[in-house]
């Protein structure tokens, strides 16, 4: 006998009623289960509304409408965050390939190749060798790299030109591969790339040289982890992203108490939570037009939260956001205007 047999929507509803979930509107309940799935709503969002995981019973007053509202809000956040991280990824690739070309040239062949191993730091020799070998594999005549078809741009260069310049190679890489390319940079090259990433904030941040380089590495890891989470459709409210940035870095970076302050540390702000991710995205965005779009997109979902009939503070807590989250986003917008 199957331990998880199929249940139709009406059977699912009866099970959820027995678990203390309010489902007064039967037609809406059926719509919700058919549109978002039992697994996403109940095993996903529903977990944060349980009295106890052991009891598997919902807290008093929890309705399926609220689960749907939180699921949709989570999806909005994921969509906005993924879009801006992809913009950051494009900017990072552009800056990285430009600096490699400027410093080491555009030829990938012979003694003057920009991927010559001595152009990069020997601090992590194993990583350096792996990154260089991966780059060579991408530029090989094979039509696939790690099981994926190579782009038409790369294949055009492979078949029609006598070299593959950095801007073609880097554009072919994943964000993770680009991140590791940055890791093998020599200190002076890391410094230049880091400065270009934070160009918009160069007059405000109070990070010293070493702190800035560490913050750059941590920030790239943070956006990579959140990019993967959002791209795979995982719920932010259930995530435990294995990338951490000390709020102290962000306090010194923004140097603005309306955005983040030492009181946030005292209040236990999550070092891998949504708000830290959002501030990291803000720090890595050096185009004011893109930043305005990103921040205003976050403000656009304010009404959906504040005009709902649900406990606003509870919803903020679920997303690990400060209770004055939207005031802080408005403060960033005012600051850059």
Description:
The chain has 337 residues and is mainly alpha-helical. It has 2 domains: 9-62, no CATH class; 71-336, no CATH class. It is built from 17 helices and 4 strands. The strands form 2 sheets. The chain has a two-stranded antiparallel ribbon with strand order 1-2. Strand 1 (50-52) and strand 2 (57-58) form a beta hairpin. Helix 2 (26-36) packs across helix 3 (38-44), helix 4 crosses helix 10 and helix 14 packs antiparallel against helix 17. The protein starts with 8 loop residues before the first helix and ends with a helix.
Describe the secondary-structure layout.
Elements: H1 9-18, H2 26-36, H3 38-44, E1 50-52, E2 57-58, H4 64-104, H5 125-138, E3 144-145, E4 148-149, H6 152-160, H7 166-172, H8 175-183, H9 187-197, H10 209-231, H11 247-254, H12 262-266, H13 274-284, H14 288-300, H15 302-306, H16 312-318, H17 325-336
Antiparallel strand pairs: 1-2, 3-4
Helix pairs in contact: 2-3, 4-7, 4-9, 4-10, 4-14, 5-8, 8-10, 9-10, 10-13, 11-13, 14-17
Name the features.
mainly alpha, 337 residues, 4 strands, two-stranded antiparallel sheet
Supply the number of structural domains: 2
Spans with pLDDT under 50 lasting ≥5 residues? none
Give the overall average pLDDT: 93
Q: How widely separated are the two ends?
A: 64 Å
Structural class label? mainly alpha
Order of helices and strands: HHHEEHHEEHHHHHHHHHHHH
Number of strand elements:
4
Percentage of residues in DSSP E strands: under 5%
Strand order of the largest sheet: 1-2
Please state the overall shape, judged from the principal axes of the Cα atoms. Answer: globular
Number of helices: 17
Largest sheet: 2 strands, antiparallel
- Measured as a percent range, the helix fraction is 55-70%
Computed CA radius of gyration, to the nearest angstrom:
24 Å
